[in-house]
Structures are given as C-alpha cells and as structure tokens.
Amino acid sequence: MMKNKVIQGNNIDILKQYPDNYFDSIVTDPPYGIDFLQKDWDSNTGAVETWEQCFRVLKPGGHMLAFSAARTYHNLATNIESVGFDIRDQLMWLYASGFPKAQDVGKAIQKRQGVVKTEVKKGMNNYDNEEGKSNSMNGSYKTEYNSTIPTSPEAQQWAGWKTALKPAHEPIVMARKPFKGSCVDNVLTHGVGALNIDATRIDNLTDVEKNWTPQRQHVKSTIDLGGAKPGDTQSMYNDAGRYPSNVIGEVEGYQQYFYCPKVNRAERHIGFENNHPTVKPVALMKYLVKLVTPAGGKVLDPFTGSGSTGMAAVELDYDFTGCELDADYVAIANNRITAWKNKTDLENNLLPEEWFEEE
C-alpha cells in the first residue's frame, strides 16, 4: 500500500532523517527569491544545505525538477549545480494568466511633483495601477480604482513607460544526480536515470499531421528507428503522440505542440479553503512526476506548499513525502491530498458550481 505524508519542519532537519539514495525523484516548487507578495518565505531560492540534502537522499541517476522565476533562475540552477547535480535541461512552463506588476513612470513623476489629478475608472485592473490590490492570482479583478493622470510635461513624456514586462513563463531546472557507468547500467541497478517519454507524449496528432511535415519527415537515417534498416526512408512520428519537448503550457496557435495543463477553482480549494498564492495545476505536476519517476517510486517535495505535487503523486500511486515549514500549509496540503485521493467532493458534486469555472 502506497504512503503519503507531509511533515512539518525545516526541510534540512527532516531530510537528515532519511538514508542516502532513498528517493527516486524530486519534484518541487521552491521559493523564487523575489519577495512575492512580501512573503518572508520567498526571500531566497532555498538554502544550499537543502539542496545538499536533496542530493544525498536522491538515488544515483534520479532527476530533480524545480520551478523558478525568470530573474532568479540563475541563482537556483547555480546552487543546485554547486552541490553536485548535473544540469540536464531547462523546461519552460508558459501561461497566459500572468499579471503585470509594474510602475508607470509617468504617473510616478506626476505624484512626485505633488500635483496629482486622478480619475475613477471601472473594469479590470491589470495590477499596473497604483491603487488597489488584486484578489485573484490571474492579476485582474472587477473594481473601481483611482488612476493618476499625467499632466506635467515631464509626466506626459514618460507616460506609458513601465518598469517590467508581463510574466508569461516559469523556468524549471531539470537536474540529475550523477552516476557511474552507462545509463543502461544505472537503470538496471537503481531504477532511475532516464525519462519516461512514452508516458508523457502529446496525444493530439491529426490524420493530416501524421502524413505531413513536420510530423512525417521522410529521411535517410543512419540508425534503426522501429525496425527499418539503416539508410531506409522512415516516418519520424509516433501514433502515440508527439515527442514531449522542454516547453509546456499555453501558447496560442502552438498548444497542439505542447502539454497544456489547466486549473480551476474546484482543484484549488478541494478539501480545504486554500489561500496559498502559488498553487500549481495538479495536471502539470502529474506530467512532471510521470516524466522522471518510475512506477511505484518514491517522490520527494522539500517545499510542499499547498500540496499539488503530493496530489499528483497519490493519484499516480507513488509514495510521496513532503516537507513544509508552515503549520497552516501543512494542514492545507494534507487536506487537499486526502480529498484529491478520495475525490469525494468532485464525484458527489458537492462543490459550488462557480468553482468549476477556469481561472
């Protein structure tokens, strides 16, 4: 029988209780080091000692997938590499729901000059105004808010100039613990080291795509692909779906090429009223867990948060261990994992109908 647990405490101390080479994979969403919403826990990208312990308890050849932010990815990747991991790739999770949080330079100049004229606007505030706070993680909300009007020459000159772009991706470090010998030797010895490509193919090929480029490229190959002789013309597609790439998410016009997870209110709040600010879609975490974890394997998340990795792991019948410092989030994670495993609320339609609307 598979087990799952979220342990409260410092992840360094918790992981010291586990033996070397214990976990098959690590899938985690650590702090981004950007002081997100002024949260103390987001002041760094995780202590180096945490990554040292992760390295120790992961099996040789085991993969770690760790989310980050665009401007702090280098800190996370460098720290992970410094403790001994090999950086294998950078995945990109793309999404359309990011919100801009930028200062309007023209409006700021106007306010500094002390002569401020404002107007009341109605509608969707996209978080680039100086008044109000968003109560939705997609960064927009219906409200009335005061907007500064640039009137001085200097303010008008810089009106529309802002300090940041709208975020639309999160990079994910793909790291692997080094091993001796070949990958074949390692998977036979430790059961890890490779990626489960067939379990994560993008199953959306149409008949037209199967018979046209780039899905059906006839090439003279120097290797045997599917039984054909080297040098024969071969079809470079697979009926099971597209070969997964290092890009996942929402890209209008290109979503058919990438895995595209969705999240709704039912998932966010299942089992508990969840106020965690950085909830990841369970579908996304399932995809990542499947990619790097052998069947029945042990999954570790040293930064559990609201428990999305645990929800994914228990649905896939993996053994899950999570670490979380905040007692409130431990309660949220445990309740969400239990509710997700039982799926009682969803099956009996006990949740409010509006929760099923996509955010």
Structural commentary:
The chain is α/β, with parallel strands linked by helices and 359 residues long. The chain is 26% helix and 21% strand. The chain has helices spanning 11-15, 48-57, 73-82, 105-112, 153-157, 183-190, 207-210, 265-269, 282-292, 308-315, 327-342, 344-347; strands at 4-8, 23-28, 58-67, 86-94, 117-125, 141-149, 169-176, 218-220, 233-235, 247-249, 298-301, 319-324. α2 links the parallel β2 and β3 (58-67). It is elongated.
TL;DR of this structure?
The protein is of the alpha/beta class and 359 residues long. It has helices at 11-15, 48-57, 73-82, 105-112, 153-157, 183-190, 207-210, 265-269, 282-292, 308-315, 327-342, 344-347; strands at residues 4-8, 23-28, 58-67, 86-94, 117-125, 141-149, 169-176, 218-220, 233-235, 247-249, 298-301, 319-324.
H and E order: EHEHEHEHEEHEHHEEEHHEHEHH
Task: Give the end-to-end Cα distance, rounded to a whole number of Å.
Answer: 35 Å
CATH architectural grouping of the largest domain:
3-Layer(aba) Sandwich
CATH class of the largest domain: Alpha Beta
Under CATH, the topology of the largest domain is which? Rossmann fold
CATH superfamily (homologous) name of the largest domain: Vaccinia Virus protein VP39
Tally of individual domains: 3
Strand content: 15-25%
Whole-number radius of gyration? Answer: 23 Å
Looking across the biggest beta sheet, what order are the strands in? 1-12-11-2-3-7-4-10
The rough form would be described as: elongated
Sheet with the most strands, sense and barrel status: 8 strands, mixed
- Please identify the oligomeric state: single chain
Number of strands: 12
Low-confidence stretches: 124-142, 208-225
Summing up helix and strand content along with how strands pair, one would put the structural category as alpha/beta
- Mean pLDDT, rounded to whole units? 78
User: Helical element count?
Assistant: 12
The percent of residues in helical segments reads 25-40%
